[in-house]
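Throughout our pipeline, every protein is held as a single compact record rather than as scattered files. Nothing more is needed to write down the fold, since each code stands for a local backbone conformation. For reference, a complete record is included directly beneath this paragraph.
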Amino acid sequence: MGDNGFQILKDDINTPGAVVCKDGVHFGFYASEAGRPALLLYKKGTEEIAAELPFPEPSVPGNFYSMKVKLSAEDYEYNFRDGDTVVTDPYAGRIAGREAYGQVPSLSPHGLRGAFVTGTYRWDEDQLPSIPFSDVITYHLHVRGFTMHRNSGVSRGQKGTFAGLKKKIPYLLSLGINQVKLMPVYEFSELEIPEYLYTHTIADKEQKKVNASADGVDNHSDLASGTMQDAVEHAFDLPAASYEQTLKTQEFRKNYWGYGPGYYFAPKASYAASKRADVEFKDMVRAFHKNGIEVILEFSFSAETDIGQIIACLNYWACEYHVDGFSIVGREELSAVLARLPLFTSRKLICSCYPDDFISENGSKLKRHIACSNDGFMNDSRRLLKGDAGTLEAFGWRTRYNPAGCAQINYMTNHDGFTLMDLVSYNMKYNDENGEMGRDGSDANYSWNCGEEGPRAKRKITALRMRQRKNAYAMMLLSQGTPMLLAGDEFGNTQKGNNNPWCQDGELTWLDFSRTKGNKELTAFVSQLIAYRKAHRILHLDAEPQCADYLSSGFPDLSYHGERAWYGDMKSSSLHMGCMYSGHYAGEEDFLYIAWNFHWEEQQFALPLLPDGYSWIRVMDTGLPESFPAMEEQENLGALRMFSVSPRTVVLLEGRTQERNAASGKLSK
């Protein structure tokens, strides 16, 4: 029997963290060299220590300690004492003390506590959608920012939460989205102690102590991992209480994005409308799966996080929360190691890159459950979109790049950069509100403001910006690989030229869904283009086109054309090209011809001669308000051999048989 009547039971589990069992709770902890650790138990919702129970000596030599304690998990929370330090369990499945978003945390070492995952969740035969990367349409979003705005259409109590995101499933389905990629949803500290508290709020002699200290606090990594009190005490060598009032009255900068150290096993409590973030997150995942949408989680593991903890974390989220995969930000050296895990024969793993030899040796075994996601497609495509010389050949390669064994994620915008509206509205970044004097954020944005900087009401400029945004979506959705859309781009979301709003939690980064009213043309275009892509397998093959006639059909799977058919002009001064897909290579009859014109002048395109009975039909034109005309209004070009395309416009033609044309006409009536 332990202190205060808590019974210590025989423990046969050798895992770190807390596991609720039928007869008690297992606790496992890796201690430092400071000696035998202890378990701290608190009354639920308080910092009141109900008991301190030393761990038994380990049965196997080493620094791993475990025990089972008979207690009611619903009534208690816990920490560990490791020497003189109070440690919140890095494996905790729930974290108490951060229930309110943006609330200044307690400076007490007991302010954060581990809480228990209790109860049995009914998944009701939940099934993973298991959508191949070639069929995926990804939508990248921030859970809080997606529904926090007053115009989100979500009730006040559910704004910025998992429950609020669940409410937006019908909207995502209307676009054609079948996968969401969520920025960090694990428990992280959204508050940073401002730099001036280190440099301006203490006497000179204390500041000299900090500067002289060999291990003084010079960054915020400790703060993000929940050791604010340790950081303050260590930096100032003074009691934390003397700073408590100062800290609570300061304007903290927020880590809005959430990247950085955190409690990786625990869903973020302040992202929940209820008191149980774990249950609410499961409800959300189950609802997404019911509607055929996958859930991918982003993780930003700190350099100190060991591979064992990372593997345990990913397995935990896959088994406990049924998530469909993970996107690992940073830690590129782990990509090949993680991809070999048995977990990724059924789950997806997205990293910035994988070694070429790994892909060639292991790609077929992994069944394309891995994908590369980096800025390559974005940078090459943005440069061509704005009209930079010498970029056409690189984009031509990007349109087909889709290596066997590893999918390629293509995006024009990401959370760390301009939104699509800002990409066509600003030549410069405007990050002054971040407090970094404009030094943060990339200077290589490859953006073009279409003639004037910032918001403009001139019809000519707004029309050009609309066309450029449509062109950007065409670049993603008419290329091989997996397209990733940034949330809000489809209705003109703007961050007013801020390309690094990592610390902005407010209307700058919250999505204003009222903008859908003024961007119906673009939103409709996006949903129509997604539907078109899904309907034509040749646009999303399982592997890269070979640009060869390996079916002996008379046409290669993909060919390039210019002002002469079959001769794609890729010289550095050229800004236009035609790409033709033969649908035979995807079990389809139609031919597709994409005319890309990024020149500021009209250009001529040569059309290959089609088999007898085929005609060219114009099905999409980004220069038109109704970019996808109704079937009966589509222009029949017949056997035309040359046609012109307006400046900065993408046109899509279908080569269809007369029988197909007649059938399509009937279906459209």
